[in-house]
Amino acid sequence: MRATRATRALAAVYEARPDAALSEPEVEAALAAAGVAVNKVTVYRMLDRFAAAGLLHKQVDAARVTRYALAPQGEEGAAPRFECDDCHRQFRLSQGSAKVQTALKQVLQALATAGHESLAVDIAVHGRCADCAHPAEGAAA
């Protein structure tokens, strides 16, 4: 992947907001705010290239909007996460992660034994984060 001004700006968007799961229009707006005007088709291509390179994780949320978030690395890859349905921030759920990882490995092994290939697991709990559920409390802190 070439290090163009647009790709560097896209990387900076996610570096500044590591918990964000952004839609294409949100990424396009963030790039424009950073002074990098890129058309919709180019933004989609960059997002797909970042996802293909394993840098971003592509997912469809409950409203059927495709969102892109930083891809977790290593053992965190299949860790469950909480996604806020309002602000779309994501929080990795580390509590009980070892047990979840063990269970996921067993499921993937069973599927592989049955001949299935290219397996991936994505566990997400949806709801409203504390900041969105109680905005007055977050402002008082």
State the CATH topology of the largest domain: Arc Repressor Mutant, subunit A
Query: How many domains comprise the coordinates?
Result: 2
CATH architecture of the largest domain: Orthogonal Bundle
User: Whole-number radius of gyration?
Assistant: 17 Å
Query: What is the distance, rounded to the nearest whole angstrom, between the alpha carbons of the first and last residues?
Result: 42 Å
**Which bin fits the share of residues in helices?**
40-55%
CATH class categorisation of the largest domain: Mainly Alpha
Task: Name the poorly predicted regions.
Answer: none
Fraction of residues in β-strands: 15-25%
| Apparent shape | globular
CATH fourth-tier homologous superfamily of the largest domain: Winged helix-like DNA-binding domain superfamily/Winged helix DNA-binding domain
Main sheet: strand order: 1-3-2
Q: Summarize model confidence as the mean pLDDT.
A: 83
Query: By helix and strand content, what is the structural category?
Result: alpha+beta
**Number of H/I helices:** 6
N-to-C SSE series? HEHHEEEEHEHH
Main sheet characteristics? 3 strands, antiparallel
> How many strand elements?
6
Provide structural commentary.
- This protein is of the alpha+beta class.
- The chain folds into two domains: 1-71, Orthogonal Bundle (Arc Repressor Mutant, subunit A), CATH 1.10.10; 74-141, 2-Layer Sandwich (Dna Ligase, domain 1).
- It contains six helices and six strands.
- The chain has a three-stranded antiparallel sheet. A three-stranded mixed sheet has the order 5-4-6, with no helix packed on it.
- The longest helix is centred in the C-terminal third of the chain and has 17 residues, at 97-113.
- The radius of gyration is 17 Å and the shape is globular.
